[in-house]
Specification:
The chain is built from 20 helices and 15 strands. By secondary structure, it is an alpha/beta fold.
Length: 558
Amino acid sequence: MPACAKQPVVLPQEQAKTPEQVKIPDAQASATAKRFLDMYQQENCAALLASTKKLQRDQYAPKYLVQFDSLVYHCTNQDGLEKEQVLAALHLVDDYLFFDPRDVQNFSLQVSQDAAKTRLSAWVASAVVTDADLEWLRKNTEGGNESKAYLSFKEIQKFRSEDREKTKPLLKDFVSSYPKSELTPQALLWLQEVNEDFKDITLTVGVILPLSGKYKIYGDAVLKGVECAAGIYKPCKSLKGTKLLVRDSEANPEKAVAAVDELQKAGVQVIVGPLSTNAVTAAAKRAEHHHLPMIMLSQLDGVVNNLDYVFRNSITPESQVKTIIDFALHKRNLKRFLILHPQTSIGKTYAELFRTRATEAGGVVVGVQEYASDQMGFVRKLQHAQREKKRGKKVRLHSKLTLDYDALFIPDSPYVASYLAPVLSMLGVKKVQLLGTARWDNQKLIERGGKYVEGALFTSAFSPNLPDVSSKEFIDRFTESYKFSPTLLEALGYDSLRMVMVATEKSGSPSRQEIAKSLRELKNFPGVTGVIDITDQHDSVRTMRMLTVLDGEIQAAP
C-alpha cells in the first residue's frame, strides 16, 4: 500500500443536486465514499474491491465514481493486482466523460484523467494480454466509449502480433467508431502499414546534421532515429521505401547552406535538419528560397516565423514550462515558486519563461536566484556551508532560499539537481516540491539524489522506461537494430521523418508544394515524443507528460 494511505484525507463537502437520472442522493453517496475511504486507510483492499464491485454504478454521480475508482486505483498499486488497477483506470476514463472538475476539490487521492490515461497507455504498450483477461475486463466495465476504445485497441494489438493483414477491417472499424480517441492516430498509422494504396510513391529525403566536430554525438543520435524511420536496418520499418541523402553540416552555417544547395540540385523533396543553433537560420532561409520543405530540430526560437516551407520539431523550453506550470497550479495546487537557475543562456531563458508564465497563470514567483554554472561552484559553496554547520558554526543562507514558497524550479541537469537537493535539505531549507525539466528523466537523478529527490516533478516527451502505445514499437525495433535504447534525440529524428511520410501519404503526391501543404495541416500526429500538432507559425506543439520519483523509481505523476 502506498504511504499516502495512512494520511488523513478530507472528503469534499456535499455538492449541488446530482442530475435527475442519478438516483442515489448526495447524503447516501457521501456516506458510501466515507466507508470506502475507511477501508482504504485501514489497508483492507479486499473489502474495498468487493464492495465497489457490487456498486450500481449508473446510480451514482460521476463526482462520486471518480472518488471510488481513485481509491481502488491506489489500493491495487501492488503486485498481483495489475488487472484490477487497469479496470479502475478504465472506469476512471469513463467517469471523466461527464465529470465537472469543480465537484471534487479537497480529495487528495483523486487520480487525474491524465494519470488514468497514462496507466492505460502503459498497459496497451505492454505484452499482449490473454483472451481471459480481456474478457474479464470487458465483462466488468460499463462499456463507456473511452474504455471501449482501449479494450478494442488492445484486442487489435493482439491480432496484429499474429497476422497484420487480418487487422485491416478491425482497424478501419476502430477509426470510424472512435474518431476522437487518442488511440486513433496510431490506428491510422497501423492501417497505412497494411494499405497498398501508396506503395508506389517514392520519397527522397535530404538530411543535414553535424556528423563531425563537437556536436557529432548529437547529430549521430538524430541520424539513427531518421534511419530507423526510413527502415534502413531491420526490424525498423518504413511506411514506404525512402531514400536518404545525408550531408554533414559540421555545425557550420556556410556548410549547412552549401548542403541545402547540393540537396536542392539532387532533387530531394524535403530536408530533415539542421540541428545546431548556429546553422539553422542560414539554412532555413536558403531552403525557403528554393521552396524546399525543411523540418529543423533546433530549439532556437523565431527561425520559422514568416517562412512558408520551414517547420520546427523540437522540445522547446516554452512547451516544458507551460506543462510544468499547468500541472503545478491545477493538479498540485502549488502557488508560490522560487527559481534557482544556472548563469547560462538556457538557464536564463527557462527562468524568464517560468516567471512570465507562472504570473500569467495566477502563480507567484517569490524570487529568482542564479548561480555560476562553471564546475558547480554554487553547489560547492553550499557543501562548504553544510560542513560548517556540522561543526557547530552559524551558517547564513542566501536570503532568497529562506523565503516562503511551495515549489523550487531548477532548470539544470539531473547531476546538478541531485547534488543540490540533499545539500539544501541538510542546510535546513524546508522541504518543498522540486520541479525540473525533461533532462531530469534520467536514472542518475535517483542514483545521486536518493531520498532527497523523492516526489520531484519533471516533464517528459519521451521516456524509454515508460513507453506508451506510440513509442513501444519504436523502442523495441530501435533497440534490436542498434543494441541500445533510444534517447530523445533519436526519437525526434524518427518523428521528423515519419511526419514527412504521413504528410506525403495524405497529399498523395511527393511534390514539395503538396508536402509543405500537408505539413502545415498536420494535426494529432501520434509521435513517439507525444501527439504533435503543427501551429500556424509552423512550430510543433505536443502533449507532454509529467513524471515523478515514487518509491525510488521514475513513474507517471498521478
